[in-house]
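hey team, just a heads up i'm posting the complex here instead of the shared drive bc the drive is being weird again. everything in one block, sequence lines first with there labels, then the predicted structure for the whole assembly after. its four chains so it's a bit long, scroll down
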Amino acid sequence: MPLSEHTESVQDYLKSIFDIQREHGRVATTMLAERLGNSPASVTGMIKKLAALNLVEYEPYQGAVLTPAGEKIALEVIRHHRLIERYLAEALGVPWDQVHAEAEKWEHVLSEDLEDRIDAVLGYPTTDPHGAPIPGRDGTLPPPHTTRLCDLQSGQSATVAEVSDHDPAMLRYFAELGLRPGADVTVVAVAPFGGPLTVRLDNAEHAVGREVAGYVAVCNVTSGG
Amino acid sequence: MPLSEHTESVQDYLKSIFDIQREHGRVATTMLAERLGNSPASVTGMIKKLAALNLVEYEPYQGAVLTPAGEKIALEVIRHHRLIERYLAEALGVPWDQVHAEAEKWEHVLSEDLEDRIDAVLGYPTTDPHGAPIPGRDGTLPPPHTTRLCDLQSGQSATVAEVSDHDPAMLRYFAELGLRPGADVTVVAVAPFGGPLTVRLDNAEHAVGREVAGYVAVCNVTSGG
DNA sequence: GGGCGGTTTTAGGAATACCTAAATATACCA
DNA sequence: TGGTATATTTAGGTATTCCTAAAACCGCCC
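-- predicted structure starts here --
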């Protein structure tokens, strides 16, 4: 049962449902519609189709949840996507704000054989260029990061784990700051009333909006110095 | 006006029309239908659509011919296809009987930027793994080879220029014989009545069916020794 | 508990690209 | 020149996936 048994649409829906489910549990029609850029009416129709294929469980007005079969496919698509992103960045030098768009198209037509070759050439990587984990062939995926840059207190340091990849302009901004997975970041100050954070990266200080800092996951948090 | 302005179907039709036109001049509905695996009725419908887009000239019952605009797109698709084949074989070690199928899918979603990167990484190659020329960015393409292995007389030698890539089993057979682009081949004997040719490759002799030899283009023909 | 706003579904329809079966045109041969 | 085989087109229909507009539902507030 390779990916190609399902249309690109089905693959895209499952991938988005998986993402939303990770964050919100229940997948509401409107949220899925926004992420996919489709109308809610269209999404209702497709969800009903996915339910008929036993890829989601669906109760009208109650949202959808992936079945094990649906989750398996979602993870395969995500594995394709992130392996491709990594490959494009590493082997072909594609800038990290462009790998997402390219992978979005290629992921649907990648054969299992080529997937394996790419995996081997890269040395079996575990994350994509934005720090997101690459699911294993067996569908394993580590739990999501729980701490974000905006959660840090003044004086705390951490390692950047993952940045959001959905806005190329924001990725270029992160690159400019040196805010990439593996980088060490220290919060110098936190402005009150939801104001910006002052962070130190590569021995330079920058003011970063609170909301933007919410798009950066961190790990290895240490307090004080 | 990038490739992505047109559907995959349109791209596939134009590519096949270009191929047939090179061999036969006029593109008959049935021939196109066979190559694409569609019914003749479907092909008629699509040709009318291509004509409406000014990509082919079409007179009912008289077949179709590419317009300059159609030819430009066809060459872009073929460039994608052959560059990808070359890349898969060279950078990822995909066997030459599998690169065609993989390229067939990827060619439609390759961005211009990635095309350029692949071209550069490969050192601007001029042929794909089967010896077929890769069209230039400007749409230039050398004329097709005119001599085939089956055209050679007993005693003649030549260099293999290009092999047909449409049948993976035949490609595996060619690989087994050492019949690959650049290889030197000598015709030892030609059986009468359309019988097989005996050819020498890598100092081994093989009997090759006349029809199969028609799928191998050669150049640098020399007589006797 | 009725009403109201926002969410979700239903109804009806469009675009793409394919199919089969039937009708028609073409080309060739007697 | 008529007739037939073949090639091609037309007619009618299916599947997929999207849309808008209208109806139905849910939850919350008074």
